[in-house]
Write a structure and sequence with these properties.
The protein is built from 3 helices and 7 strands; from the N terminus they run βαββββαββα. The strands form 2 sheets. It has a 4-stranded mixed β-sheet with strand order 3-2-5-4. It has a 3-stranded mixed β-sheet with strand order 1-6-7.
Length: about 130
């Protein structure tokens, strides 16, 4: 299956750096409010997921434990037609994501899924 979520090289390098301090990591895609719509990175166990969260992808990055990427089910309804790429940019985010002290922030770049990807993921085509 093709990935729903990918990371850029810069984001992967930052994740490797952060893992040396925080250990295994996970992402939760924020739904707005205080964090904007940034992907929030936490040490595993610092953010509790539940039945209202969707696991979009388990990211496989060389040298790291698998990194689960979650999104709330309500947010997923808005984003289900998109492929996400986690990128890293200069600047401090407004949330509690662990990259903030580094003067960097993770951000999402997105594109619409192709018809083939929609079929592969079992997402009903856009009308």
């Amino acid at each position: 299956m093709s990935p729903r979520v990918e990371v850029t090289g810069a984001a992967a390098d930052m994740l490797r750096h952060l893992a040396t301090t925080y250990g295994p990591l996970m992402f939760h895609q924020s739904g707005g409010c205080c964090d904007g719509s940034s992907p929030m990175c936490y040490p595993v166990g610092m953010f509790r997921t539940g039945g209202s969260d969707v696991l979009l992808q388990t990211l496989e990055i060389d040298g790291l434990d698998p990194i689960e990427f979650y999104m709330s089910a309500s947010q997923y309804e808005y984003w289900k037609y998109t492929h996400l790429t986690v990128d890293l940019v200069d600047g401090r985010g407004s949330g509690f994501s662990v990259e903030a002290p580094e003067g960097k922030r993770f951000m999402i770049r997105s594109r619409l899924l192709t018809d083939g990807e929609l079929e592969e993921y079992g997402v009903e085509a856009r009308s």
